[in-house]
Amino acid sequence: MTDPARKPTVVIVHGAWTDASSFAGVQRLLSPEGYTVLEFANPLRSLAGDADYLATFLRARTSGPVVLVGHSYGGAVIGAAGLAVTDVRALVYVNAFVPAEGESLLDLLNSVGPVDPGQLFDMAPYPGAPEGDVDLYIQRGPFEPAFATGLSDELQTEFYAKQRPITSAAVGAPAAPGQAWEQLPSWYVAGTVDGSIPLDLQLRMAKRAGSAVTEVEAGHLSMVSHAREVADVIKEAASATAQ
Fold it and tell me: Given 21, 22, 46, 72, which residue is catalytic?
């Protein structure tokens, strides 16, 4: 077990259409074991801007070793920001995108089948948007099969009501060179019935990154339905990279 005096800070980066509360169950398992857990409020505005925001957050809010945890779009953010702060020791991907240089989230999804945004999203303008950019909200019909698979009706309604939008520009932005997974050890929690990121794509990205993979019978929000398994993987990453 990791020496409490040397336990890294766990920084959680949520993805699109949710917020930090999606990791509440994970946080409740980690904090009593002596982990400092910080939940980054991911802006969901632009990939480069969100990564810069995360790097600034890490410099301001952490000292000593850090384990970065990214869900879905948050995986692209931790990959972009992970090398900007020298104390980051490990990456944990939870049903997450792990793009290589030049790849966007949309590219990765289209690699396993065409994606029609009009069938998935309600599109809303937002103040100050670059020309043609919009906020994306998941429509009610595809919300359960694409995003909230396996959750109770009550939780599906809750997550639908509080979804935070991501911009179309962020989804289509190419990943920058120098991805953190190219240099840092990583772990990957793959949801086997994920309706947002197909399992084959999850495993392909994890293999490319050299991640240690844990499969759970869960949909896209595996940290909600399988909080203990996700917490255990985070602890494994923390222990493996302790100094």
Answer: 72
